[in-house]
Amino acid sequence: MPDWTYHPLRRPAAALLGERRSQRTALRLLASVGARPAGARLVARAFGHRHPPRHLAGEVGGAPVTVRLGLSVPPALAHEAVRAMAPLGAGFVEVTPVAAADVPTVREAAAGRSIPVVVGACDAETATGLEPYVDGFTGADDHRLIRVTDPSVTAAAAALEEPAAVLLARPGVLVAAGPGWFARVTEAATPTLPAPGPRDIGRDPRRWPAWWWALLLGLGMTVAGLCAAAITLGPVLLCYDRAYLGMTPGDLHAVNHHLVHFLQHDRITMAGTMVAIGVLYAGLAAGGIRRGRPWAREALLLSGAIGFPTLFYFLVTGFVEPLHTAAAVVLFPMFVAAVRRSPRTPRWRPVPEGPEPERRRALTGQLLLIVTAVGLFAGGAVISVVGLTGVFVPTDLAFLDTDVQTLRAVSPRLVPFIAHDRAGFGGALMSAAVAIALLSAWGWRRGEAWVFWTLAAAAAAGFLPAVVVHGAIHYTDAVHLAPVWLGIAMTTTGLLLARPYLCAAAPTQPARTADAAVGR
C-alpha cells in the first residue's frame, strides 16, 4: 500500500485488527502481490518508483545491488520482506541474526527472490549451510553498514553521499515512515540539474523539447475549451449544427423552452472540463516533464490515450462535429511530440523535510483527491455509456418535461446530436480524472506548489461552470447535483489539508547538482 493509504488508514486498521496484526496483514498483502512479476511491476508503477541513479549502486556482502539501501529483518519476517521490498524500491534485504535453526526458514524465503538477500550468520556453520542459497553475508565488523532507526529521509540521503556507505533500515523505520520511505530517500539522494526555461527553446520546432510540446498542448486545449464556452454562450449552434438538425435555436425553443438551456448546460460543462484538462496538461508540462519527472509524461500519456479516442464516438452517435475534429487534428501531433520519449535527466529542486504532522495531513488530502478522481472517472464512464445508449437520465427528462419519443418526433437527428455532446463530455471527464489521479498519486511532494495550484485551477475550471450553469437554467435537482457538491467538498478539503505541505517554501541554498556528484 502507498503512504497515502497507509497513514490515513493506519489507525482505523489498528483499531479493527490490532496494531501488530494490521502491520503483518499489510506486509503479507504486499508480499503476495510482489511475489508475482506482474504484481511487482504494478506496485512499482502505482507507487511511481523509477530506476535509482547509478551512483547509488554498490555491493553488500559481496552481492551487487542497484541501490545501497535495504531492509534488515529477523528470520520470522524474511519470507514476506523478500517478496515485498523490491517493488517498494529497496535494493536488498538483510536477514539477521540467523542461527542454525533458522536455515530452513531463510532458504525458503530466498527461493525465487527478485532482490538480493544477504545474511548475518551467527556462526561459520550457518554461513556454510546458506552459502548456495543467498547472495552474500554481512558481519558486525563491516563499518560500511549504517543501521538506520530514524525515519528521517534527509539524514538517510546525506548518509548515502558517502560512496561506500550502505544503509540498513529496521522494520520500525517503515512502520513509522510508511512504505514509500525507500523511494523518498532515493529521490532525495538523486543529484539534479537546473530546469530549462522558455529562453532555452530554439526557433526550430524539430528541436523543441517534449515539455514545450506538452505545454502547447495544454494551452491549445484551454483555448479550445474557452472557444467552446464562447460559442455556447453566444450563438449556441454553429452553421453546421443548424444544417445537421435543420433547426435554429429559435425552433428548438419553440418545441421545448428548456431544450436550448439543456444544450447549453451540456456544452458549458464540457467546455469547463476541456479547460481543466488544459490546465492539468500545462501543469504536468511545466512542473513535471520540464523538471525531468518521468511519471508526469506517463500521466499525460494515459490521460490523452483515453481522451483522444473519444473523437470516434461519432461512429455510434452518427454526428461528426467539424470543430471538434479540427481541434483533435491540430492537438494530436502535439500530444505525440510531448510523449514520444520519457525525460531522463532529473531537474527538480529538492525541498528538505518538514514537520511529520504536516505530511500526515497532506497524505489524507492526497487520499481524498485520488478518491475524488476515481469517482470522476466512474462518473465519466457512466455518462459516456448513457450518452451512447439511452442518452438521458430520469432527471434530464424531468427537467425537460418530456420523453425521448417526443424529442425523436421533433427531429430524428435531435437525440443523436445531444448524444454527441453527452458522450463527449463523459470521455473528457474520464481523461481529466486520469490526469488528476496520477498527478495526485505521483506528484505529492513537499514544496511542489505547482501541484497544488494545478489541481486547484483545474477544480475551479471543472466544477464552477457546472454549478453556475445548473443554477442559471434552474436545473437544480439535488440527486443530479449531489456528485458535483461531493466532489467540490472532497477536493476543497483535500487541497486545504495539503496546502502547507505542497506550498512549503523552497530552500534558499542551491541543490547538489549532477555535475558535483560526478566529481566526488
Overview of the structural elements:
- The longest helix has 33 residues, at 356-388.
- The chain starts with a helix and ends with a helix.
- α1 (3-17) packs across α17.
- It has 2 domains: 3-189, no CATH class; 206-346 and 354-503, no CATH class.
- It is an alpha/beta fold and 520 residues long.
- The radius of gyration is 27 Å and the shape is elongated.
- It contains 23 helices and 8 strands.
- Helix content is 63%, strand content 6%.
- The chain has helices at residues 3-17, 19-34, 37-46, 75-88, 103-110, 124-130, 153-159, 171-177, 181-188, 210-233, 239-245, 249-255, 259-288, 294-307, 314-317, 322-339, 356-388, 394-400, 404-410, 414-442, 449-472, 478-502, 514-518, and strands spanning 58-60, 63-65, 69-73, 92-98, 117-121, 136-137, 145-148, 166-169.
- The protein has a 6-stranded parallel beta sheet with strand order 6-5-4-3-8-7. Strands 1-2 form a two-stranded antiparallel sheet.
- Residues 510-520 have low confidence and may be disordered.
- Keywords: Membrane, Transmembrane, Transmembrane helix.
- The chain crosses the membrane at residues 211-238, 268-287, 299-316, 322-339, 367-393, 423-444, 451-473, 479-498.
Largest sheet: 6 strands, parallel
Overall geometry: elongated
- How confident is the prediction overall: mean pLDDT? 90
Give the helix level as a range of percent: 55-70%
In the sheet with the most strands, the strands line up as 6-5-4-3-8-7
What class would the helix/strand composition place it in?
Answer: alpha/beta
- Could you name the ranges where pLDDT drops below 50 across 5 or more consecutive residues? 510-520
How big is the Rg? 27 Å
User: What count of domains describes the coordinates?
Assistant: 2
Strand content: 5-15%
The total count of strands amounts to 8
Distance between the termini: 36 Å
Question: What's the multimeric state?
Answer: single chain
Number of helices: 23
Keywords: Membrane, Transmembrane, Transmembrane helix
Transmembrane segments: 211-238, 268-287, 299-316, 322-339, 367-393, 423-444, 451-473, 479-498
